[in-house]
Specification:
heterodimer; A: alpha+beta; Beta-Lactamase; Transcription Regulator spoIIAA; five-stranded antiparallel beta sheet; 16 helices; B: 128 residues; 5 helices; globular
Chain lengths: 407, 128
């Protein structure tokens, strides 16, 4: 297909059309009339509507015949008319050259919609004011989105605090009010540091700045215990998730705050119970005057071995027992670190003035100990508990004698 | 000054010293002095160092104790450390501090038994 020159194309179009080709003014008029996304209409200097496009009809419901010649204030809600707002719009547009407003407007059926309105003065070539142009955008969807956002924030189970780039609170929900004990009007506009414990307040702006420098959704203060401060001064343990929010109104941060007081208490209870279980599962019993026995059961990790050592030493002193039988029959494996801890225990016991007899060294364990190079050559060891008892009696210079006199 | 509170007691042929709770370096040094002086005067066969009130152990103290044990040995006596607290034992072990050739006993009573020879220590070399 051969490309046509512009002139040839116009000539062809002219032949196809029934009348003369539209000029640029006509195109402009067609544009204004046809656009349906925006209400574009004009007023005379008094404010009477002179033109009305398809968009205006769609947005406010008036057909051209119903509104042309009427004062444009019928498009405003009562409260705006009462304060003379429409007239003020025109006056400002005339002096400033432009006036932009966001606010409620009225449809023909009386319903309201949130609109963005730009008023422009229209002047003739000599500069005389001949009227006004208005471009109106229906922001209902935007408003709907904002309302929806506020609804979500309000109904969230966590306390939500939204702060702007400068750290001022712009939005909170009722969970925030409950958690921190403030009414929302006491928080909005305040610096977010009002919710931060006094001790951390100084460093907080720095943290905020680094967050805004690297906007990323993340948990706040990873690995640290976080606290918020109630209005009455009390500190509340919390967990905080941060969400950056970049809008055309600026950068914000959305903080989602959970009160973890209950969780912390549960953690403390668990820790306490774990400690109790530990004590229960490593009993140290007195077998005879001067002999205590501690059967170890299960795998020994560093923490458990350390705690065992403390308890053993304590019991040795309490019972005044020079011999401690430590039975490891129930210990399946030992690693190098545990082996070291055991040796430490033996040394510590010796420092007290007592002695460990390690019993229950089974073949498998014996192999492991040798292979790992754990040196227990300075420790008395026996393969069974009864063997250990024999040694203990020997150390204490005791002898078991049967009732009829035989040993 | 704490150094003045160090008194070395003679019980028959054994010397006994109670170390105060938180001995500073000066006290520890004074202790060593007193012990050696008393050893010379009485030619005791042994020394009991009662450390049952000592709560913390630093390396200076440990070192001085080890030295004292060696010095007493040179003068013909054996030393027994009595009544070490569990927390001190743990710290010493973790710091890798050793007590040299010092003997240990759970309390002063047993310490005297040790020096008497009536309390037999489980000597590893004998048993295995």
């Amino acid at each position: 297909m051969a490309t046509e020159t512009g002139r040839a194309a116009r000539a062809r179009a002219a032949k196809a059309m029934k009348g003369p080709l539209p000029d640029s003014e006509t195109y402009t008029r067609l544009l204004v009339e046809s656009v349906s996304d925006y209400a574009i209409f004009t007023l005379d200097t008094e404010g009477l509507v002179t033109t009305w496009n398809r968009g205006a009809e769609r947005i406010s419901g008036y057909r051209p015949g119903e509104i042309i010649g009427r004062h444009f204030s019928c498009l405003y809600p009562e409260d705006k008319i009462d304060v003379g707002f429409p007239e003020q719009e025109l006056k400002t547009a005339a002096t400033e050259g432009r006036f932009e407003d966001e606010g409620w407007r009225l449809r023909k059926d009386g319903s309201r919609y949130w609109a963005n309105v730009i008023t422009t003065p229209l002047r003739d070539p000599l500069g005389n004011l001949v009227g006004f142009g208005k471009v109106v955008r229906d922001l209902s969807q935007h408003q709907q989105a904002t309302d929806r956002f506020r609804l979500i924030v309000e109904s969230a189970p966590n306390a939500i605090v939204m702060a702007n780039h400068e750290g001022l609170i712009v939005l909170v929900n009722s969970q925030t009010e409950q958690l921190f004990g403030y009414r929302r009007d006491e928080l909005i506009g305040q610096s977010v540091e009002i919710l931060v414990p006094a001790g951390v307040r100084g460093a907080h702006p720095g943290y905020r700045a680094s967050f805004f420098a690297d906007l990323k959704t993340r948990a706040m203060g990873a690995g640290r215990d976080l606290y918020g401060m109630h209005k009455d001064g009390r500190e509340i343990p919390v967990e905080i998730g941060l969400n950056p929010l970049v809008t055309d109104e600026g950068s914000f941060v959305l903080a989602s705050i959970i009160d973890i007081t209950a969780r912390k208490q549960a953690e403390e209870t668990i820790a306490r119970q774990a400690q109790e279980i530990l004590e229960v599962s490593t009993p140290v019993v007195q077998v005879w005057e001067g002999i205590i026995a501690a059967p170890l059961i299960g795998t020994l990790d560093s923490q458990r071995t350390e705690q065992f050592m403390e308890r053993l030493l304590q019991r040795i002193v309490e019972t005044n027992s020079p011999v401690a039988l430590v039975d490891i029959t129930g210990v399946p494996t030992i690693d190098t670190q545990t082996g070291q801890h055991l040796i430490e225990t033996v040394t510590a016991v010796r420092m007290l003035g007592a002695q460990v007899v390690l019993t229950g060294v089974r073949p498998a364990l014996a192999q492991t100990l040798v292979h790992l190079g754990i040196d227990l050559s300075h420790v008395i060891t026996r393969s069974s508990m009864s063997g250990g008892v024999r040694v203990a009696l020997d150390i204490l210079n005791l002898q078991v004698v049967s009732k009829n006199g035989k040993r | 000054m704490a150094a003045d509170t160090i008194s070395v007691i003679k019980l028959h042929d054994v010397l006994m010293v109670t170390v105060p709770p938180d001995p500073d370096d000066e006290t520890v040094s004074a202790l060593q002095e007193r012990v050696l002086q008393t050893m010379e005067r009485h030619e005791a066969k042994g020394l009991v160092l009662d450390i049952s009130t000592v709560e913390t152990l630093d390396s200076f103290f440990a070192r001085t104790v080890v030295e004292t044990v060696q010095m007493v040995a040179l003068m013909g006596g054996r030393t027994v450390l009595a009544g070490m607290r569990p927390s001190v034992a743990i710290t010493a072990t973790q710091l890798g501090l050793t007590l040299g050739s010092a003997l240990t006993a759970l309390n002063v009573d047993r310490a005297l038994d040790v020096l008497d020879g009536t309390h037999r220590l489980g000597d590893v070399s004998d048993d295995q």
